[in-house]
Design goal:
The complex is a heterodimer of chains A (about 110) and B (about 110). Chain A is an all-beta fold and about 110 residues long. Chain A contains no helices and 12 strands. Chain A is globular. Chain B is about 0% helix and about 55% strand. The chains are: A mainly beta (about 110), B mainly beta (about 110).
């Protein structure tokens, strides 16, 4: 079965500290992988995506993620968090059987001053 | 993100009402999607349209009825909803059915 697990429901980091959000997936073939961010009351904004090639991908807002096939993981990282990064982050894998994305339950990030 | 717009942004309706949600994409994409986002649950796919044809129908109750009149517009018609249908309804589009999806801001629906 295709699924995405984000083991951390809520993470709090200090402003300026580094960040790593975990994502593990289950998928029968080589997946397409995505990270999205959602601010309160907003839709999902694409941060970055992996389709093939270099396993370290760069995204917007200083985020990066690394695809590790052996660990079935696609963790999101940022070297220095800003207060404006506080939001909910969703990892997704695709394509699903209907061409859709399969999402994890999300990780809420809080940033303390 | 102005590539995909949704109206209304907020909607309150009674269980006997009929309403429609509208989605418009300005990206020239060929596939559009409706997702439901409920608290503490992953996003759930409701409907997929590719080149204006419904690809497959998920096990969505018939009180939700999608319509895709052209590749830029997608509607979700609602009638006799239940309180458990209260959620954020998100529209997305992609260049092709398996491509990167871009989301609208969502419609927050409350069913009383």
């Amino acid at each position: 079965a295709q699924s995405v697990t984000q083991p951390d429901i809520h993470i709090t980091v200090s402003e300026g500290a580094s960040l790593e959000l975990r994502c593990n997936y289950s998928y029968g073939a080589t997946p397409y992988l995505f990270w999205y961010v959602q601010s309160p009351g907003q839709g999902l904004q694409l941060l970055l995506k992996y389709f093939s090639g270099d396993t370290l991908v760069q995204g917007i807002k200083g985020f990066e993620a690394e695809f590790k096939r052996s660990q079935s993981s696609f963790n999101l990282r940022k070297p220095s968090v800003h207060w404006s990064d506080a939001a909910e982050y969703f990892c997704a894998v695709g394509p699903g059987s209907q061409g859709n994305l399969i999402f994890g339950k999300g990780t809420k990030l809080s940033v303390k001053p | 993100e102005t590539g995909v717009t949704q109206t209304p942004r907020h909607l309150v309706m009674g269980m006997t009402n009929k309403k429609s949600l509208k989605c418009e994409q300005h990206l020239g994409h060929n596939a559009m999607y409706w997702y439901k986002q409920s608290a503490k649950k992953p996003l759930e796919l409701m409907f997929v349209y590719s080149l204006e044809e419904r690809v497959e129908n998920n096990s969505v109750p018939s009180r939700f009825s999608p319509e895709c009149p052209n590749s830029s517009h997608l509607f979700l018609h609602l009638h006799t909803l239940q309180p458990e249908d209260s959620a954020l309804y998100l529209c997305a589009s992609s260049q092709r059915r398996e491509g990167t999806q871009y989301f609208g801001p969502g419609t927050r629906l409350l069913v009383l």
